[in-house]
Specification:
The model has no long low-confidence stretch (mean pLDDT 83). The longest helix is centred in the N-terminal third of the chain and has 17 residues. This protein has 174 residues and is an all-alpha fold. The protein has 8 helices and no strands.
Length: 174
């Protein structure tokens, strides 16, 4: 059975116009959905989804709700889950990139496993000329300590050379 109160609350939240025909229009849309849906509960859910989609699209009249409901019925959708999947799929297909090219869907970033991290560290140690990962860690630590100790000296030298921190030539005013 139609829950008129809940539908009217959704209707008002969506900002759709209410006039003397609104009640009849709501009943017609609901009856159409109930006739084609799996159950009356599913018809009610589909009705609310149609109202929300119309609001999202910026509609102001009942025609948008009716068109959404008719479109889903013609597509053979009989429950709210099918409507959600259908809309999600349609939204993915509509998205286009620059110059009409489809947007490339990137795969999710996978977190590296501890074995992969260990293999990478071993490969870097070999490339940098260290005997082991522990030797690379010690060498890197020593380099960073040395850089920290000599920071003041290196910063003091930069202005004398006329270079910026990035190594670019300083512009001199005349």
């Amino acid at each position: 059975m139609l829950n008129q109160t809940q539908i009217m609350v959704e209707w008002q939240k969506a900002g759709l116009k209410i006039n003397g025909f609104t009640s009849g229009d709501i009943k017609d849309i609901y009856n159409h959905l109930a006739h084609n849906a799996d159950s009356e509960v599913e018809a009610h859910k589909m009705f609310i989804l149609a109202i929300r989609k119309a609001a999202k699209d910026g509609a102001a009249t009942q025609w948008a709700v009716s068109n959404n409901a008719n479109y889903w019925v013609q597509a053979g959708l009989t429950n709210a889950q099918a409507v959600g999947d259908y809309e999600k799929d349609a939204q993915q297909k509509q998205r286009k990139g620059r110059y009409g090219q489809p947007i490339k869907q990137e795969s999710k970033i996978l977190a590296p496993t501890s074995d992969e991290i260990q293999q990478q560290n071993e490969r870097w140690a070999k490339e940098l000329g260290y005997e082991s990962v522990a030797a690379m860690a010690k060498g890197t630590h020593d380099i960073l300590i040395n850089l920290r100790k000599t920071r003041q000296e290196r910063l003091a030298i930069k202005p004398k050379t006329g270079l910026t921190a990035n190594g670019n030539q300083v512009l001199k005013r005349f």
